[in-house]
Design a protein that fits this description.
It holds the Pfam family S4. The radius of gyration is 20 Å and the shape is globular. The chain has three domains: 81 residues, Ribosomal Protein S8, Chain: A, domain 1 (2-Layer Sandwich), CATH 3.30.1370.160; 77 residues, RRM (RNA recognition motif) domain (Alpha-Beta Plaits, 2-Layer Sandwich), CATH 3.30.70; 86 residues, RNA-binding S4 domain (Structural Genomics Hypothetical 15.5 Kd Protein In mrcA-pckA Intergenic Region, Chain A, Roll). Strands 10-15-14-13-11-12 form a six-stranded antiparallel β-sheet. It has a four-stranded antiparallel β-sheet with strand order 5-6-4-9. A three-stranded antiparallel β-sheet has the order 1-3-2, covered by helices on one side. Helix 2 crosses helix 3 and helix 6 crosses helix 7. By secondary structure, it is of the alpha+beta class. A hairpin with a 2-residue loop joins strand 7 and strand 8. It contains seven helices and 15 strands.
Length: 260
């Protein structure tokens, strides 16, 4: 990858940029499509930027349903016409005794991660308040189905379902427009959830905040376009647009917000 590309992204994103460069090179040399694992929105933004700026290749994202947050990307030459089946997704429903217990996004995610399943092997976890479904990469689905038999103390059964049986997710992003003095992590949390800067700093330093699904304990961490911030007990924030500054030098932001 051209060295000039790195200056537009964070140091910790350079390894992912190198991977994207390898994928593009593979598609160009083999003249055949390449399918990624699941990408978070920030990774998808980086990939899209690099493809547009450094190649003539095309790409499509799909995560199992129209507004999926985590998607697989198919990178392909201009002759190729992608189909839904090319994304090799499987939809799994979690069967559990609904009358006697409740599941949560955090419990399901924690179970999958503790079972040694990498985050890029599965996509969104969705619920309508009772039923829960997960989108998996087809090549790892059977392993995950066999591996996960309990979530917490609850016995569960993971069952593949057709896409016609997809539920309508209960939670959805609310779009909010606001201004902030900076893109610091603690400032953003304070601004969105209307808590003190000191309180937001404490949440970050206590390990209760994730940026793009990784714990981040740096209050001064600078957020960027399409980063997703998860704040335990509060909800999630996505930077959907950075739209210049006000006369008072505040940053205009378009956010997606999930509030608990």
């Amino acid at each position: 990858m051209n060295a000039n590309v790195y200056q537009h992204f964070r140091q910790e994103e350079h390894a992912f940029i190198d991977s994207v460069g390898d994928w593009l090179e593979q598609v160009e040399s083999q003249y055949a499509p390449y399918l990624t694992n699941f990408l978070d929105p920030r990774q998808a933004y980086i990939l899209e930027t690099l493809v547009r700026e450094t190649s003539e290749l095309k790409f499509s994202f799909y995560g199992g349903y129209e507004r999926a947050e985590r998607c697989r990307c198919l990178i392909y030459p201009d002759y190729y016409e992608p189909q839904t089946d090319d994304f090799e997704l499987v939809m799994i429903e979690i069967k559990y005794p609904q009358k006697f217990t409740d599941l949560s996004h955090g419990k399901i995610l924690g179970t999958l991660m503790s079972a040694g399943i990498k985050r890029d092997y599965f996509g969104d976890i969705i619920s309508n308040g009772e039923r829960w479904q997960i989108f998996l990469a087809k090549d790892s689905a059977s392993y995950i189905v066999n591996q996960v038999t309990k979530i917490g103390r609850v016995t569960v059964h993971l069952e593949e379902r057709p896409y016609t049986d997809i539920i309508i997710p209960k939670d959805s992003w609310l779009e909010e427009v606001t201004t902030a003095s900076s893109l610091r992590l603690d400032v953003m949390i304070s601004t969105v959830y209307n808590i003190s800067r000191q309180r937001s700093k404490q949440l970050v330093e206590a390990g209760k905040v994730k940026v793009n699904w990784s714990v981040n304990e740096r209050p001064d961490y600078l957020l960027d376009l399409l980063d997703v911030v998860s704040v335990r007990g509060f909800g999630r924030i996505q930077i959907q647009g950075i739209e210049g500054k006000t006369k008072k030098e505040k940053i205009r932001l378009r956010l997606g917000v999930l509030r608990k």
